[in-house]
Amino acid sequence: MINRFYLTILFILPGEITYGQSPKIGDKLPYFTLDRVINSKQNIIKAEDLRGKIAIIEFWGTWCAPCIPAMTHLDVLQKHFSNDLVVIAVSDDSKERLQKFLTKNPISIPLA
Fold first, then answer.
1. DSSP state at residue 39
2. Is 49 left (phi over 0), alpha (psi -120 to 50) or beta?
3. CA pair distance 106, 67, nearest whole angstrom
4. Dist CA 109 CA 89 (whole Å)
5. Domains and CATH numbers, the chain
6. Residue 61 has pLDDT above 90, yes or no
């Protein structure tokens, strides 16, 4: 019985490890569409819109205390390197909550 358990773990574990691999510099960005974009001229951002630019896609939340100062730093980076850099902050917060965040924290990066 114990051997069966270990064999099951042995076959499942490698799949879990390879699933969560980190991207490497030079890897191609997979296709995606962000269709709930605010604080941007575009309402929709697609992966191909970022072609030829350095992209920082920040996953964050309005509830995340360390994320809030990071947004300010990312906004400064975006402004300084605006010709070559695109910063997009992706959150699972509602549009209303993101708007409220922008009222308290005026930044210029797109939020999705």
1. S
2. alpha
3. 14
4. 7
5. 24-104 (3.40.30.10)
6. yes
Please check whether residue 46 is in contact with residue 32, taking contact to mean a CB–CB distance below 8 angstroms. yes
Classify residue 80 as left (phi > 0), alpha (psi -120 to 50) or beta.
Answer: alpha
Please give the single-letter amino acid code of residue 54.
Answer: I
- Strands (DSSP E) found in 22-71: 33-34, 45-46, 54-59
Query: What pLDDT, on a 0 to 100 scale, did the predictor assign at position 19?
Result: 57
**Residue holding tokens 């270990």?**
6
Q: What is the pTM of this model?
A: 0.72
**Sorting pLDDT into bands at 50, 70 and 90, what band is 32?**
confident
Token pair 């695109």: residue = 86
